[in-house]
Amino acid sequence: MFIQFLKENRYVSLLLTVLRLYLGWQWLNAGWGKISSGKFDASGFINGAIKNMSGEHPAVQPWWGNFLKEVALPYVDLFNVLVPWGEFLVGLGLILGIFTSFSILMGLTMNFAYMLSGTTSTNPQMVLLGMFILVAGINAGKLGLDRWFMPLLGKLINKKAGNEQFSQSA
């Protein structure tokens, strides 16, 4: 019942828009700060997380620490591009209300990656708010570009699927 309320109520879409704009600004600002400084380097953060995977009560679980050690650290140059641009694009998507569900899903993925790496900061708050947007689906982007873009995208997909079906039967 609550999920249906989030997904369908037009007044809830106003609240979701406020949450979307708030989270979008947080992501956009964080990403732009990293991009514009030109000095972002994730290696210090990754090395710190790897160090926190030992001890009696590790802040970083070994499976995640091993991912950081074996994948993220060797490809840190890639992560140095993905992190700031990912944050910036998630923020832009949320602010504009375009690809809202995908944008918040990617934002939540980054929030969880930061928390799995042993940081807290505002990540739990952003996860909680982001879950409302994700569950609400299309209603979260109704007061954004998704209102016009998603129906257009649906028509294009259906048209293409119809053309493929026609050409297969001919």
Q: What's the rounded overall pLDDT mean?
A: 92
Structural class: mainly alpha
* Percent of residues in helices: over 70%
Radius of gyration: 19 Å
Which band does the percent of strand residues land in?
under 5%
The helix count comes to 8
Describe, in plain words, how this protein is organized in 3D.
- With 170 residues, this protein is mainly alpha-helical.
- Helix content is 77%, strand content 0%.
- It contains 8 helices and no strands.
- Helix 2 crosses helix 7 and helix 5 crosses helix 6.
- The longest helix has 28 residues.
- The chain starts with a helix and ends with a helix.
List keywords for this structure.
single chain; 170 residues; mainly alpha; globular; disordered C terminus
Topology:
Layout (H helix, E strand, L loop, with lengths): L1 H7 L1 H28 L5 H9 L10 H11 L3 H21 L3 H17 L6 H14 L9 H24 L1
Helix pairs in contact: 1-7, 2-5, 2-7, 3-4, 5-6, 6-7
Give a short synopsis of this structure:
The protein contains eight helices and no strands.
